[in-house]
Specification:
By secondary structure, the protein is mainly α. The chain has one domain. 95% of the residues lie in helices and 0% in strands. It contains 1 helix and no strands. The termini are far apart.
Length: 39
């Protein structure tokens, strides 16, 4: 049971990392677009 729990937690961590990566990419795109818009 504990081994399944640790594996489940690992999957959750990987999902969170993927989510943060997607957010970081979106933020970078928004910053670039805003920079070009203000230029």
């Amino acid at each position: 049971m504990s081994s399944w729990n640790s594996h489940h937690n690992l999957d959750m961590d990987l999902n969170l990392i993927g989510l943060f990566v997607e957010i970081a990419e979106i933020v970078e795109i928004v910053e670039i677009v805003e920079a070009h818009h203000h230029a």
